[in-house]
Amino acid sequence: MSNRDFLSLPLGTDTLVITCDSIGAIGSKELDVISAEPAVVGRFLARVALMELISTGAALIALSCTFCVDSVTSEHILEGVYAEAQSVCPDPQGITVVTTEKNVPTRQTGVGITCVGLARGNSLRVGLSRAGDIVVAMGRPKVGIEVSLDDPENADLLKLMELLKIQGVKDITPAGSRGILYEAEAIAVSSNLKLSLENTCESFLNKSAGPATAVVFACTPETYGVVEERLQPLIFIGTLKSKEKMK
Q1: CA–CA distance, 101 with 210 (Å, rounded to integer)
Q2: pLDDT tens readout for residues 43-60
């Protein structure tokens, strides 16, 4: 799925799903541009890739962390990765493989993560939306120094898992550096529909949402009120329509 942030591969009657993310120049190293505790770096690193994974309906089966830093720093980042991953996996340490930089000293933080998941049977949540569904953003787009770990305006794994439980919610995708509008249009494309944009606030729609501080989803109009009672903040984006009706 080239317009979405995951790779899906058929595996018999199931689907293998792979997501990844990276963080650079954010951390506790001398040349980092934004200062942050390594464990916090690990929390956001894992959060992005895991949100992308479980949005597809896949369950986590393996993690890979690639550290461009020393083993001491990587250990602290891993603490954050494991703390975040425990939301979706009881023993993340048991399914993780790690590599670190052992040959040269490092002065700036760089780290990548890959998540592998399995969507059983027809549980892959892609292309579920239909004409007449509405598109909504949960959370506020924030990036860089605007981002903090426990900001109540952030989307996070717990909010996402609550969203997944609500009947009438269709496609879900976290928003990152490409912004909310890109992901809203990607949802439309995945169901062969067009997005009729009704919120034209460019600064909101096109701003980077950094480490997935917002999530975009489609739902039936009747479902919006149910979601609104459980999750905030929500912003209405537009309506999905058939391509014929948009001509």
Answers
A1: 26
A2: 999 999 999 999 999 999
